[in-house]
Design brief:
The complex is a heterodimer of chains A (about 525) and B (about 425). Chain A has about 525 residues and is mainly alpha-helical. Among the domains of chain A are: about 200 residues, no CATH class; about 140 residues, no CATH class. Chain A has 25 helices and eight strands. In chain A, strand 1 and strand 2 form a beta hairpin. In chain A, about 45% of the residues are buried. The N terminus of chain A is likely disordered. Chain B is α/β, with parallel strands linked by helices. Chain B folds into two domains: about 325 residues, Alkaline Phosphatase, subunit A; about 55 residues. Chain B has eleven helices and 15 strands. In chain B, helix 8 crosses helix 9. The two termini of chain B are about 25 Å apart. Chains A and B meet through helix 16, helix 19, helix 23, helix 24 and helix 25 of A and helix 6 and helix 7 of B.
Chain lengths: ~525, ~425
């Protein structure tokens, strides 16, 4: 009941605010960011910069040579808003968001085609985030359309290499990824530096999910054992026995009903038919009702913070999984506002992403007035933060840039790119760290170098056929960097090609490579 | 070193040197590039570190501080060493023979008994908490000594498992001071210049990339540009040093002496890296957490360590490198004297040992004492902070005067309240 009440309240609040003619969310975002900026704001992006940024964020690739000129030439004042809406409505949006949430939630632990289908279908239908969270936290094998959601748990219930199943890691991941709290240290004691994080945080969450077991099926599936009594634990520092039942931070501990032995089941498990049975008291079911709720501050702030991070390059709370009183958000009111408005809009992800994308804060340039201004504190958002392209974005963008869409097989190449550019499993892909491995891949990978050789219809072939070197420079810059070259850049290209006229094919390859390997291409700026 | 120099600038100047040599039509090998006298002079000056990390906890009682025939002493005997009066476990006979080169510390008393926190705590020197993440020793040395003239990364980590660029080690110093890890000693992927690209074209395309990056960097944050330039510089230098990774070219006699096991291979590779001029080489040995069956565990692990360690020290001594290379072998803690119900020893930071030698370190001595049963330190206790002070001093870096500058925040390089252990230092 209290949940309904607060939902109604939240809805009322929105209606009141719009009735009073209060500004849109994107205007409120800008007001709150600018109020705390304490320094000069970088200029807004040019159309070309915006075009590239928004394609990378919502389509997961740079725009093609056909898509760019149309937008740049469009004189409509509302063209940015129209482009955001077009991309949010495209099939590529669902693909891009599937990639983002796959990497975020599975952290490259593994994959399954039913999980991919689940993500793809969910984002295509713009399924609310709370519904998705519910489906992942209490997956139903009976519903074929959503059963892939079980991979969140089932992958973590498998042996990891030669290591046994990492149950504490699974408990931790539920906290980190759905509530933005890292309770790892609380397995053994209250967190030493974070006053908020009590041992009950870990143990209470463990009481919810510790009964999950892996089912051997061709699709991702889990089963659940009954929970008969509270979890007993003791701090390694304070040797005092304690107990806790299923419990989420800020909410009430769940009473565990007592059943006679064998009476725990509504439907008993049957090994013969492989039916996992159905519990009368399912902690996963309760978890899926309690956790993804508009009443749960940690839940709604976590997802608001993560979507903000996705578009802005830095969480309002950073690290993303360290929400606690000692690590206040850079903009507490803004995080509150985003979380509440998102909940009031029934966790409509397209709505929130659209509002953020329409803000001036999102559309700010990554180039400051001078080098000193460029070093503005990251949390001030005065200068847009550059976001490294994920391995998925790099692959799709390289294919688009080199004009290899007809030949390249991204599904087969994804693993190759992930190996070179992605973080190792279990390491969140949140912060920028270039690697020698990635540099070596760029320098010597045969697939990448192959795309730079002229082949029917690709960029190298088109440039090879372009006799006028100024034109060649323009097509090359537009194809790879989504902008025209500056005068100095154009001159460099013309001079370079003149100097290497005898080896034109190689010269073109060197030029193409230098732009593909450049920071300008490898970052979303 | 000019404090404004960046490691990759040294790498660049090395390449400029290469370019210049080629330009005058000389076809010289790498070793001939520098004037022999100058090369000899540089060799003398450049200080290096070999840091052997024994992950999980080596037992001091089965290595450097044996207590035979006592309550917790275990089954192994103590043996005399080349230094009269110093005895070590019979599990390290080869190290015993070269004790005249070694310095043992038996009075370590540190703060943490968990691996997850202890590994980082020890390798960071456990400084006072100032709200920043301190660099690991390797990143600290990479920063303070620089990359030298080799053009190779200043901090290389030879370890089992995967390769990569371990930026986490660098803490607030930033990713460029992280470790380049050679997983299982293997070279990173794509280390060979692609057959379709000539060395001249490789230079050309990278020069074009540098121009594009310089234009892009204007009025932008420096972090991206610096970090990517650095990884490309390292990648390209590594591509030119195939000799460091091709284990098939290692001298079979060396392979035999260091041991045909993983740790032996990795130590031999570490020697090649040191010879090539890498400033800081870390070698990891895993699997030392002997909570169960401690004695069989050490019976299997110690000889491998002993073989490769003694071969390394002997080789460095034979090559006149021991005066420049500081060598340290240690864990995150020792093991409990008390033998548990699984015939194992648990974590024991209260009284444990490490061994070192090389640059600036007095040799042929054992510093500190524990009680008869090895449970507590009876001499002055040394924390990891004391070791950091000692090591920095050995490398001619004064930890009482040298500070990091973390964006304006001055930070001591070692724990403020600790000091160097004079008995361990030459002069």
């Amino acid at each position: 009941m209290p949940r309904m009440a607060s939902l109604t309240l939240a809805l009322c609040a929105t209606m009141v605010s719009s009735a009073l003619g209060q500004s849109s969310l994107h205007d409120q975002i800008d007001a709150l960011i600018e109020a705390k900026a304490a320094g000069p704001l970088a200029a807004q992006t040019s159309d070309a910069e915006f075009l590239r940024r928004v394609y990378l964020d919502f389509a997961g690739r740079i725009p093609s040579l056909e898509e760019s000129p149309a937008f740049l030439a469009d004189a409509d004042a509302a063209k940015r808003e129209k482009l955001v809406d077009k991309l949010l409505a495209s099939d590529e949006y669902a693909k891009r968001m599937s990639q983002v949430f796959h990497v975020m939630l599975l952290e490259r632990l593994g994959d399954h085609k039913e999980w991919q289908k689940y993500l793809q279908d969910s984002f295509a239908a713009n399924k609310p985030w709370d519904v998705m969270a519910r489906e992942m936290l209490n997956p139903s094998a009976e519903n074929e359309a959503t059963r892939g959601a079980a991979l969140f748990f089932s992958k973590r219930l498998e042996n990891y290499g030669q290591n046994p199943v990492d149950v504490p890691g699974m408990v931790r991941d539920v906290g980190r990824l759905f509530m933005g709290i890292d309770v790892q240290c609380c397995q053994c004691h209250d967190h030493l530096f974070v006053d908020d994080y009590k041992q009950e945080y870990y143990q209470g969450l463990f009481a919810f999910v510790g009964q999950a077991t892996l089912r051997q099926e061709s699709f991702p599936a889990i089963a659940e054992k009954p929970l008969a009594k509270k979890v007993e634990f003791m701090s390694v520092f304070v040797k005092e026995p304690k107990k806790v039942g299923p419990y989420l931070p800020g909410l009430k501990e769940i009473e565990i009903p007592v059943y006679a032995n064998g009476e725990e089941w509504e439907i008993k498990p049957d090994p013969k038919t492989k039916n996992p049975g159905k519990l009368k008291f399912s902690t996963l079911k309760i978890l899926s009702e309690q956790l993804p709720s508009p009443d749960n501050q940690l839940f709604k702030k976590n997802i608001a913070n993560r979507l903000w991070w996705l578009l802005l390059g830095r969480g309002l709370v950073q690290p993303l999984d360290m929400q606690h009183a000692g690590n206040a958000p850079s903009h507490p009111e803004l995080l509150e506002l985003l979380a509440n408005e998102f909940a009031a809009h029934k966790f409509d992800m397209k709505w929130l992403l659209r509002e953020i994308a329409l803000s001036k804060t999102y559309q700010r340039g990554s180039q400051a007035a001078d080098d000193a201004a460029a070093e503005a504190p990251r949390e001030s958002y005065r200068v847009a933060l550059e976001k490294p392209l994920s391995s998925e974005q790099l692959l799709a963008s390289m294919i688009a840039a080199t004009g290899e869409s007809a030949r390249a097989k991204p599904d087969e190449l994804q693993e190759r790119f992930a190996k070179a550019f992605a973080n190792p499993p279990r390491e969140p892909e949140v912060e920028f760290s270039p690697t020698v491995k990635a540099a070596l891949f760029y320098l010597n990978d045969s697939v990448v170098l192959g795309w730079l050789k002229p082949a029917p219809g690709n960029l190298a072939a088109r440039l090879f056929e372009t006799k006028e070197n100024g034109k060649l420079a323009e097509e090359m810059y537009l194809s790879i960097l989504t902008r025209l070259p500056g005068e100095d850049e154009k001159k460099d290209v013309v001079d370079y090609l003149a100097k290497h006229a005898a080896n034109r094919e190689t010269a073109i390859r060197n030029l193409l490579w230098s732009l593909l390997a450049s920071n300008e291409f490898c970052m979303n700026h | 070193m000019n404090p404004l120099c960046k490691p990759w600038e040294h790498a660049l100047s090395r390449r400029q040197l290469l370019g210049a040599a080629a330009g005058v039509g000389a076809s010289l090998g790498l070793s001939n590039l520098l004037h022999p006298v100058a090369a000899e002079e540089m060799k003398k000056k450049a200080k290096q570190v070999l840091f052997i990390w024994i992950d999980g906890g080596m037992s001091q009682l089965e290595s450097w501080d044996p207590k035979p025939n006592t309550l917790f002493g275990g089954p192994f005997r103590a043996i005399p060493t080349s230094v009269p009066g110093i005895h070590v476990s019979e599990l390290v006979p080869r190290s015993a023979k070269i004790m005249q080169h070694l310095a043992i510390v038996r009075s370590l008393c540190t703060q943490d008994n968990s691996h997850s926190a202890g590994v980082a705590r020890i390798q960071r020197g456990d400084p006072k908490n100032r709200g920043v993440t301190y660099p690991y020793f390797g990143s600290a040395v990479a920063k303070l000594l620089g990359a030298g003239s080799s053009g190779l990364p200043p901090y290389v980590w030879v370890k089992p498992g995967s390769s990569g660029f371990i930026h986490q080690d660098a803490g607030f110093l930033g990713p460029k001071f992280g470790a380049v890890a050679f997983g299982d000693g293997k070279p990173p992927d794509n280390l060979v210049l692609h057959e379709s690209v000539t060395p001249a074209d490789d230079d050309e395309r990278n020069a074009l990339r540098a121009v594009a990056n310089a234009r892009y960097a204007k009025n932008r944050r420096k972090q991206v540009g610096e970090a990517t330039s650095y990884v490309y510089d390292v990648a390209r230098t590594l591509m030119k040093r195939q000799d460091l990774f091709d284990t098939t070219k290692f001298d079979p006699k060396d392979v035999e002496r260091y041991g045909t096991h993983e740790f032996g291979r990795h130590m031999l590779q570490a020697r090649k890296m040191l010879e090539a001029g890498v400033t800081f080489v870390k070698v990891n040995s895993y699997g030392w957490d002997t909570h169960g069956d401690n004695f069989n565990g050490h019976l299997s692990l110690m000889p491998k360590f002993d073989q490769a360690f003694a071969a390394m020290v002997q080789d460095l001594a034979d090559r006149s490198m021991l005066d420049n290379v500081l060598v340290i072998a240690m864990s995150e803690f020792g093991r409990t004297p008390r033998i548990n119900g699984h015939i194992g020893r648990d974590h024991w930071p209260e009284a444990w040992s490490l061994v070192m030698t090389g640059c600036g370190i007095k040799r042929g001595l054992a510093v500190g004492e524990t009680n008869a049963e090895g449970t507590w330190v009876t001499s002055k206790e040394f924390d990891i902070g004391h070791m950091f002070h000692t090591w920095f001093n050995a490398l001619s870096i004064d930890p009482k005067k040298t500070e990091y500058d973390n964006g304006g925040q001055p930070l001591p390089i070692a724990h403020d309240d600790c000091h160097a252990v004079k008995e361990l230092l030459v002069g």
